[in-house]
Amino acid sequence: MCVSKKISFHRFIPHLDSTLDYIRMRRCQSGGYCFYRLEEPNCSDTYFALATLHLMDRLSFDKETADFLLSRQRPDGSYESLSQAFFSIGGLRLLKLKPLYDPREYLFAHTQAYDVSLLPPGTNSIFAPLYFLVNTLKWLNIKVPKKSRHQITSFVLYHRKESGGFGHIKATLMETRDAMVILDGLGVTCPWNITDFLSACEDINHGFVNIKGIRFSYLEHIQAGLEICHWLSFSPTYPGSIFNFLQACYRVNGGYARTTNTGIASLEDTYLAISSFQLLLPFLS
């Protein structure tokens, strides 16, 4: 979910104008965004809308959007959830703003390991809470306390698998990406090479799959694989397959869906697609 660095790639993105219209039509009157176009804005849709506009170099300051994100924080500095803090603060960062109140105490309350069996069913990554936390602290230039840094590092490294990747039961591409982001945010260098794991997750039909040997993929897997490629300076074996996969996720309303030829578009998946196009471009040049 980190915002990739912008490069000039407007001609490379298919249907650019339609995608911009898709995003703008999902802005609510309050300034927030909602992918199903009701007056029910939320922080995640707002973040993904802003992040995609940023990647397209089409983001401009919007006071109503800023006010919506600022209003998500409580006067004591806390948020409804850690994920809401991540999306709210991330959106404000894109608008070059900071929260009204210091969230340090609230964020530090989450700087600890946890029982992965207690995570909500369907969680894509056991590292998601720490991914939100470490990114948010990094955006705010707040250092993780030394004791917590050691606890988090040990927790992440404990879930390293023999394949070289990271995960709970098996190593997955998404959890490996999250682990790399967390360790980097803590200033810890990954002590082994995960290139072999990344290679094992390559697939001739999709470009990448989340787990070695499976035969389907989603946008979040493609984007995670491409992020790891950039971390490792690794050229994907099937860039053409990735490009075709991304194109097949496009929908006539201008947005992108989670997988090819089925499902509805969302702001999150549109961000993942545009981010993936941006990450893929150097490998097609």
Task: Give structural attributes.
285 residues, mainly alpha, Glycosyltransferase, two-stranded antiparallel sheet, 12 helices, 6 strands
Could you write a compact summary of the structure shown?
The chain is 47% helix and 6% strand. It contains twelve helices and six strands. It has helices spanning 16-24, 43-55, 63-70, 82-94, 104-108, 128-139, 146-158, 173-185, 195-200, 219-232, 239-248, 267-284; strands at 166-167, 171-172, 202-203, 207-208, 256-259, 262-266.
Give the helix/strand layout.
Layout (H helix, E strand, L loop, with lengths): L15 H9 L18 H13 L7 H8 L11 H13 L9 H5 L19 H12 L6 H13 L7 E2 L3 E2 H13 L9 H6 L1 E2 L3 E2 L10 H14 L6 H10 L7 E4 L2 E5 H18 L1
Overall mean pLDDT: 93
Task: Encode the helix/strand succession as letters.
Answer: HHHHHHHEEHHEEHHEEH
CATH architecture: Alpha/alpha barrel
Q: What is the tally of helical segments? A: 12
Give the strand line-up of the largest sheet: 1-2
CA-CA gap between termini: 24 Å
User: What profile does the largest beta sheet have?
Assistant: 2 strands, antiparallel
> What portion of residues is helical?
40-55%
Structural class: mainly alpha
Number of domains: 1
Strands, count: 6
For the record, the CATH class is Mainly Alpha
Radius of gyration in whole Å, from Cα? 18 Å
Which topology does CATH recognise? Answer: Glycosyltransferase
Strand residue percentage: 5-15%
Outline type: globular
Residue windows where pLDDT falls under 50 for at least 5 positions: 2-7
